[in-house]
């Protein structure tokens, strides 16, 4: 059974940091691309960061480049999103998702809330 479980969200002041985790079961991370997405209040879902299956190369949305870092621990089958220098506009529900068919992200976690506010 495929399951993605996010954790690590919370309330943080501007300039602070959080580390989100996404524990994956049912698929081995090493063989699939995985990404982090967010949905801010009143907005649609947006891609935040991605890590490829083949070589672990990474991509970032322009809005988070230099502040967020995606990584994965193959042994733990877990993906992380280190979020530094957080801004109020980063406030959103963050989701991880896995692409098991190379045709799009087809399995999603339930999301974790990140709120950046003083």
Structural topology:
Blueprint: E1 3-7, E2 10-12, E3 18-25, E4 33-39, E5 45-51, E6 58-60, E7 68-73, E8 78-83, E9 92-99, E10 107-108, E11 112-116
Parallel strand pairs: 2-11
Antiparallel strand pairs: 1-3, 3-8, 4-5, 4-9, 5-6, 7-8, 9-10, 9-11
Describe what you observe in this structure.
By secondary structure, this protein is mainly beta. It has no helices and 11 strands. It has strands spanning 3-7, 10-12, 18-25, 33-39, 45-51, 58-60, 68-73, 78-83, 92-99, 107-108, 112-116. Strands 2, 4, 5, 6, 9, 10 and 11 form a 7-stranded mixed sheet that branches. Strand 4 and strand 5 form a beta hairpin. It starts with a strand and ends with a strand. The model has no long low-confidence stretch (mean pLDDT 95).
Sheet/helix structural class: mainly beta
Distance between the termini: 40 Å
Determine Rg (CA atoms, Å).
13 Å
Low-confidence stretches: none
What's the tally of helices? 0
In percent, how much strand structure appears in the residues?
over 45%
Could you say which overall geometry the principal axes of the C-alpha atoms support? Answer: globular
Mean pLDDT: 95
> Portion of residues in helices?
under 10%
What's the story with the biggest beta sheet? 7 strands, mixed
The count of strands amounts to 11
The helix/strand series, from N terminus to C terminus, equals EEEEEEEEEEE
User: What multimeric state do the chains show?
Assistant: single chain
